[in-house]
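Appendix B. One record, verbatim.
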Amino acid sequence: MRVFSGSLATETNTFGPMPTGLMSFKDRGHYAAGQHPDRMTLFSGPLWAARLRGKDAGWTLIEGMVAGAQPSGTTTREAYETLREELLADLRAALPVDMVLLGLHGAMVADGYDDCEGDLLARVRAMVGPKTVIGAELDPHNHMTQAMTGNADVMIPNKEYPHTDVLERGLELVDICAAMVEGRVLPTGAVADTNCQLV
C-alpha cells in the first residue's frame, strides 16, 4: 500500500490583530518532505501513526511537508498558498497513492479563504481522484464544512484537552482508512448541527 502523509495547521482567530505569516509556521515547526524529526509534533499524529502501522504492514510511506503555527490572527494569503502548494507538490510527486493522511486543525482562515481545510481537501481530492482514501485528524475546535466532508472520507478530532491523544486519534484514523482501502469498511459521512458550545 502506498500512503502519503503531511500536515498544514493553525487555529485562526479572525478577531486577532496579529496575522499568521510564513515566519509563524517556521518558528513553530515547518519540516520539508522527508525531514520530520524523530519526535511527534502536535499536528503530525497521522504521520506517526502511519509510520507505526506501515512498518508492520510493509507500506510505502511518503512523508510530505509538515507545518504548524501557534493560534493567532488570520493567515496571510502568501503563507497559506505557499505552504498549500508545497504540500500539494509533495503529494503530486508521490502519486499514485492508495491513502492520504493529513494533520489539520479545522479552523484555519486565510486572506481570501474562509475554509482553508475545505480548500485543501478539495484540491487533494481533485489530484488523487475518487478512489483514493483521504483521512484527516482535526482539533476539537474545528469548523466542519461541506467542503471538508465532501472531500475527505474520514475525519477524526482529538478528544482530550490538552491534546494528549494526538497519536491515539492518529492510530484510529489510520486503522479506519486502511480498512477502507482493503474493502473491510465503508463509512458514510454526515454533518449535523448539535448546537454544541465549548467554553
